[in-house]
Please model this.
Amino acid sequence: MSDKKAQLTVDGKTFDLPVYSGTDGPDVIDVRGLSAEGVLTFDPGFMSTASCESQITYIDGEKGILLHRGYPIEQLAESSDYLETCFLLLHGELPTPEESKKFRDTVKNHTMIHDQMTHFFNGFRRDAHPMAIMCGVVGALSAFYHDTMDFSDQEHREIAAFRLMAKMPTIASMCYKYSMGQPFMYPRNDLNYAENFLHMMFGTPCEEYKVSKTLAKAMDRIFLLHADHEQNASTSTVRLAGSTGANPFACIASGIAALWGPAHGGANEAVLTMLEEIGDESRIPEFIAKAKDKDDPFRLMGFGHRVYRNFDPRAKVMRQTCNEVLEELGLEDDPLLKIAKKLEQIALEDEYFVKRKLYPNVDFYSGIILKAIGIPVSMFTVIFAMSRTIGWFANWNEMIGGSYRIGRPRQLYKGYTARDYPKK
Ligand code: SDX
Model:
């Protein structure tokens, strides 16, 4: 228990509240006992609320630090890859070479989906947004695995983790193929995770698809940079759904739905739309003014963050990857990249953004890379969802494997007091 205390006095009554310290980051005040005293705290948007204990990811917003199980994101992006980071997020340590081979082989052996699932796609219009299809198809996975649905059993949870990590790229690429009217491509076990995804996205049965190692490396880095990010909106959604005992496939589907919003994972798609709307560097001041105008709902997509009051460390790595990919593809003069760089430079010098500590976030450059790789804009958030599946699952698994209670926030009621139904 904690020997630190905070005191809260309400209507003359003083409450002693325990204060807990983490291994890093701010202390927390335990307010759980207040409801029994008829007192509630009020925190819409959870600006000042720690919803759980976790050991997975740590963010220092002031310093622009992001750690996964203690390892800085910059070092993981430089020296690790997505599947090794998945192992780290799930198990807390980097894998031994033997553990790594077994982990990768197990993922490879789960990449196909049940053939019956292909029929789900036919129910959608060809122009359905792929995030709508992802929500539906991922949620439906639970209908195929009745054999391993006892999630108090760690082994069942582990099997579910492999199924989700392995099948998300297959389902995502099927969303794309369906929209193109092209046949679904089967996964190939001779390719690594990112190569296999590009093969399923852009390959056809008519000829051998030559996977670019450069693009596969860039794809893998995008997966890695999006893998997990503490208790963001979609991860908190997954935890809340999981706290009711819902199965992990349904919980991940709820995370996909939450991620879709333009304020969250939908921002990468919105950044590209914004850059294309700006169209020319000469129009940047007009859009900066719109972003600052309180009467205009427009926001500079890809800028700002609830936690980071400094550069999002992922944005720095993403910018470097963007330069590498476009140079490799001979697209260093890409007009959208030039607008993005000019927009970033202007925003970082503008007092409005400086005062509010609004910096580029993970979504600002990712869309330019994805577009250069040939991924359509409508698939950007799908790729974010694929990447974040491991982070959602690791948080769900940490909660289910420990002690937890059903999440049930309260409210500040501002409606009618009791009144009688009018007599007939
Ligand atoms: C992700 O939480 C996570 O970790 C998320 C994520 C993850 O990995 O899971 O990092 C992924 O979602 C990144 C964020 C992607 N979203 C966007 O790029 C959309 C644009 N950004 C904003 O909508 C906004 O910055 C948020 C939603 C990201 C954060 O919103 P907050 O924390 O609620 O901040 P706020 O809206 O209270 O803004 C504070 C001030 C306001 O001005 P004032 O009322 O003080 O005058 O800053 C302004 C806002 O108007 N502001 C912006 C702005 N972002 C904030 N003004 C113009 N353009 C922006 N982008």
